[in-house]
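FAQ: What does the model actually see?

It sees only this:
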Amino acid sequence: MTNTASQESAVYGLTGRDLYTRLLRHVTPYWRMFALAVGAMVILAGTEPALPMLLKPTLDGSFVEKDLQSVGLMAGLIIALFVIRGAATFATTMALTWVGGRVVMDLRNQMFDKLVSLPSAYYDNHASGTLISKVTFDATQVTEAASNVLLVLVRDTLSIIGLLAWMFYLQWQLTLIAFVTAPIIVLFVKYFSARLRLMSHRLQESMGDVTHVLEEAIDGQHVVRSFGGEPYEKGRFANTVEQVRRFQLKFMAASTANSPVAQVVISVALAIILILAAHLSATDEITIGGFVSFFAAMALLFSPIKRLTGVNGLLQRGIAAAASVFALVDEASEADRGTQNIGRARGRLEFRDIGFTYGSGEEPALDHVSITVEPGETLALVGHSGSGKSTLAMLVPRFYVLDEGSILL
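And it is asked to produce this:
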């Protein structure tokens, strides 16, 4: 794996909030569709507490008041509620997919624009497979993670607030028990956050390694076959994909560990609430409809809390992918100073005491070299591999910038 550039390290040091704020700026041009998605999420979240709210008058009217007319009305409202819920789900999914596709396209275009404007020295320090992985894999990871995180944070947070508000209205003493579980869950989420981000970074880097090894094996197939390098390349590729498998397993272990812990804590709270609710029902402090409505709300509360505790894995993956994408976008482009048209040159080329050292090298590739090529003259450069022949040729079109000396045309 190649060394990470300093610029990339700087971007990786940004907080998750900074990266998502920057990503949000890419969403701004599509704010209408984004607003539609958020609005549909709000409606979808509102249908969660609406169901237990309708259950209370339905059951009380059916078993206590024997009011069949109101029961029929409530049944119709429940059907309408699910129609609205289905429409909101469809609108949310389509709007987020549309916005996500646009943002991915914009990010990929920005990354490609940057790739074609970077200096040659950048490519010397970065494997092509890693760069391809950034454009193809990381850009998609950013929008997928961001869309899922947004969906969970907006829809499920509002659902939890609505369900808790209804539970407080029905029986505030029982609802307080649910709040005891929150600090415990938060502690576990914080514990796994750092490991999730680390595993996500390593997973993305290993995916870049797979692309790099695969590309080298395909491009150099003739060399591999000529020297009998098939066993070596097979072992190299197998080790790389095994590394990806290990990082995926570690990431999933850290990611899924949040939910089981949260579920155990919540199940204990549910058992306590069930016992207390049974006592309240026996003393007529809560009606049958209220009892069922409370537990319906509590049951509906379980899924959004589970998704909310699992959102950290998505968040960390999105942060890692966003850091990788913006590290490339923020790389300094090669300065374009070739804007002066000198007309037709006479053809005399002079290398005057030039010196050049590659960024990662200690020994100079060229040291105090002076050559003059007259118009119409043919010059042959002869030397062993690594003696600077290709370097000298690449200095003419200014693929690299001299450390010392000058080239005159």
